[in-house]
From TrEMBL, chain A:
Keyword Lipid biosynthesis: no
GO BP, one annotated term: phosphoenolpyruvate-dependent sugar phosphotransferase system
Classification via PANTHER family: PHOSPHOCARRIER PROTEIN HPR (PTHR33705), PHOSPHOCARRIER PROTEIN NPR (PTHR33705:SF2)
Name of the protein in its database record: HPr family phosphocarrier protein
Species: Streptacidiphilus pinicola
UniProt cross-references to NCBIfam families, sorted A to Z: PTS_HPr_family
SUPFAM superfamilies given in the database record: HPr-like
TrEMBL record, chain B:
Organism: Streptacidiphilus pinicola
Taxonomic lineage: Bacteria, Bacillati, Actinomycetota, Actinomycetes, Kitasatosporales
Stated name of the protein: phosphoenolpyruvate--glycerone phosphotransferase
SUPFAM superfamilies (alphabetical): PTS system fructose IIA component-like (SSF53062)
A GO molecular-function descriptor: phosphoenolpyruvate-glycerone phosphotransferase activity
Catalysed conversion reaction: dihydroxyacetone + phosphoenolpyruvate = dihydroxyacetone phosphate + pyruvate
Residues annotated as domain PTS EIIA type-4: 4-130
Biological process (GO), any one: glycerol catabolic process
EC number: 2.7.1.121
Amino acid sequence: MSLSSDNAGAACETSVVLPANLHARPAGKLAQAAARFSSTILIEHAGKSVNPAGILAVMGLGATAGATVTVRAEGEDAAAAVETLAAVLHAAE
Amino acid sequence: MTQSVGIVLVSHSAQLAAGLRDLLAQIGSDSVPVQVAGGTEDGRIGTSYDLVLKAIHAADHGNGVVIVPDLGSSVLTARTVLEDHPSPDVLLVDAPFVEGALAAAITASIGADLTAVATAAQEARHVPKF
């Protein structure tokens, strides 16, 4: 996992190659993980960008195993948010 | 964390409601009180006033309840129960059964309030499946 941050503590993003399809269970875990942060978080795939709080929208991305998903966050806990959500995506099974 | 908003699944079929509850539990709503009111009291397809009322009471842990009906008389039965037992803390939502319940359960699981859980269920209608 590589974290890039153009302005530490403000905006942060990382990309994850999904080990499994982004289906209901990992989408639910993403929503729960995202709720712990105050930063604005987006999950992006194939030109679509959704709020991870919306489990249905995350499933609607249609991201499958092997696809690249980007986690983007902006706010005071952006780095931690990106790290945590990326870990959820890495752990998808 | 305080107890989350409760969810009541009202269905014509006990199996449909129970199956949906199992699905919600798999997706991480185990901290959310989810109650079912499926079928009639003698196990037939239909809806039961008493089962809906019992489910609402069981789901209410002090932070309100969102009722997700499947269709038709599930809506009517839930409405009748709410007319007889009006409460600002019990909301019947117009939402797709599976998606609405799922969005409500996840939103409740992160500690959201009653309005946010009801809104999440209702917004499920507008999210494309793929």
